[in-house]
Amino acid sequence: MPAVKMENAMSEKIEIKVAKQYEDLPRLVVHEVEHPNFEARLAVNLLEKWGMVAAETDGEDSAGRAKLRLSTPKELAERACNVAAEIRTRGWFVSAPTWAEMEAEIKKR
Description:
Shape: elongated
Strand content: 25-35%
Radius of gyration: 21 Å
Strand order of the largest sheet: 1-2-3
Number of strands: 7
Structural class: alpha+beta
Distance between the termini: 21 Å
Number of helices: 3
Largest sheet: 3 strands, antiparallel
């Protein structure tokens, strides 16, 4: 069965294929054709850590000092999406072969 190509809202490219497993039992295989490189993985790791302590200004206390509040989940998600988009614009993704390319390579051997 040929692989089915899909693209989700975040433009992650994946292929889904039904493949035979043990004793010819079928299984669903998901294959990503894009993978983050080192810089992208590092940026995501940093965002995971910074997201827990990210704060926004929240006025002043009675002594005139700045007050901070933790970012809301919505704000953190928006920041994460912005970082992910920036990572993509920097070209920090590497391509992997498609199912068809891998199968063609195996047939050559």
